[in-house]
Amino acid sequence: MSIEEDDRQLRHECGVFGCIASNPWPTDLDVAQIISLGLLALQHRGQESAGIAVSAGDNHTHFNVKKGMGLVSNIFNDEATKNLKGNLGIGHTRYSTSAGSEEVNCQPFVVHSAHGALAVAHNGELFNAGRLRRMVLARGVGLSTHSDSELITQALCLNPPDIEIDGPDWPARIRHFMELTKLSYSIVIMEKDRIFGVRDPYGNRPLCIGKLMSLTEPNKEEGWVVSSESCGFLSMGAKYVRDVYPGEIVEFTKEGFHTVSVMGRPHNRPQAFCIFEYVYFARPDSIYEGQMVYSVRLRSGIVLARESFVEADIVSSVPESGTAAAHGFSMKSNIPFAEVLYKNRYVGRTFIQPNARLRRLGVAKKFGAIVENVAGKRLILIDDSIVRGTTMGPIIKLLRDAGAKEVHIRVASPPLKFTCNMGINIPTKAELIANKLTIEQLAKHIGADTLAYLSVEGLKEAVTEKMPNKNAVEVGHCTACLTGEYPEELTF
């Protein structure tokens, strides 16, 4: 992410991952190691806690589970993964929104029902969590956390038993849950010898499928993975297959995967995939809707240059998520790209600023200016978003102190004006700088010569231009944080 997270307070809730080995079992595939690699690739989606639950596939009552606070690499070292033996498993890395940053909220959640153990990991935030919580409590179930994921787990276990004849019908229970709440979730669920991948009917949160290939026999598949993003697939020897469709329930077994069912949206409403996944959250090497995130960000810069060109000597970016858009802006404007900021990658969020002077110079701990590329130059600086506006000002001052003649800020997304309520921790409307100042006032406030945002229509164009099925009637993206238009009315 391009600037100090503590200033921006724009964070994703979590990432989910699942892996199942192909026949025969017991497998030689190190399932826990693959899941830990998957979670490591999803670390940008949450850094507070992580967990893995694995199953041998032959026991209804026992899963091997390890969870903890902190980064994936700190929790799952070689010794930890060696102790997690199994033929299938699911994992989770978390940043809290609806529940606090405590070990009790670490996922996956595992419950022991009358029908055996069930493990659940969830990305998103339930639009009607309050109503669902009251329903579960009314059934006499006590909840130990305020996590939506525990709520989902208990709701699955509480599905009316009178529709079942021979044990639990988990697909029917999942469909029943999806009827109770349409937003917002991607879920991986494990029971005994199978995994379910579930995506809400609007497709608001991402989920995709990959095939694990043999390292010795190129055309042989050794298992399947399901993940919030595809960015880690190549590093673990997996090939991206496709997204889980909005409303789809996919079942993974040792024989492969198949679609159990696909739930439609109310009143034939369009899909509502989070457009800010493209702008900010996803890793640039992930694939969404048949296209690379990097390519969408590049096109955003191209459209931004068309909409808000200004004469300058150099185009650059706030590292690192603004870089692809900056290259696009440079291509369209024919103004050369050059780096003007160096990002110190060894500074974390816990950096201590002991006095007022260092607090005012806070950006200095994160960035340095490349003076030779800055001095005497007119600069266009591209960033992916401006949230509170507290960091851009110090960055501009740093560049002016390095000799910049002009600094023009271009933002590769529209102004953030509304909260999310679907799994992204966006500050309150009152904290968002775009609700306090006009563009001209904000430019003056941060010390820029000019400031311009990408338009909402421009962002939609960049996202849909190269989509394989862009003309399909159901294609749609959630722009709630930009426009205030939510897929469904928020309920409590």
Structure report:
The structure is a single chain. The chain is α+β, with helices and mostly antiparallel strands and 492 residues long. 26% of the residues lie in helices and 25% in strands. The chain is built from 16 helices and 25 strands. Strands 4-3-5-2-11-10-12 form a 7-stranded antiparallel beta sheet, covered by helices on one side. It has a 6-stranded antiparallel beta sheet with strand order 6-7-8-9-13-14, covered by helices on one side. Strands 18-21-22-24 form a 4-stranded parallel beta sheet, with helices on both faces. A hairpin with a 2-residue loop joins strand 16 and strand 17. Helix 5 crosses helix 6, helix 6 packs across helix 7 and helix 9 crosses helix 15. It is globular, with a radius of gyration of 23 Å. Keywords: 4Fe-4S, Glutamine amidotransferase, Glycosyltransferase, Iron, Iron-sulfur, Magnesium, Metal-binding, Purine biosynthesis, Transferase. Its EC number is 2.4.2.14. One of its GO terms (biological process) is purine nucleotide biosynthetic process.
Task: Give structural attributes.
magnesium, 16 helices, PurF_N, 492 residues, 25% strand, purine biosynthesis, alpha+beta, metal-binding, disordered N terminus, globular, seven-stranded antiparallel sheet, 26% helix
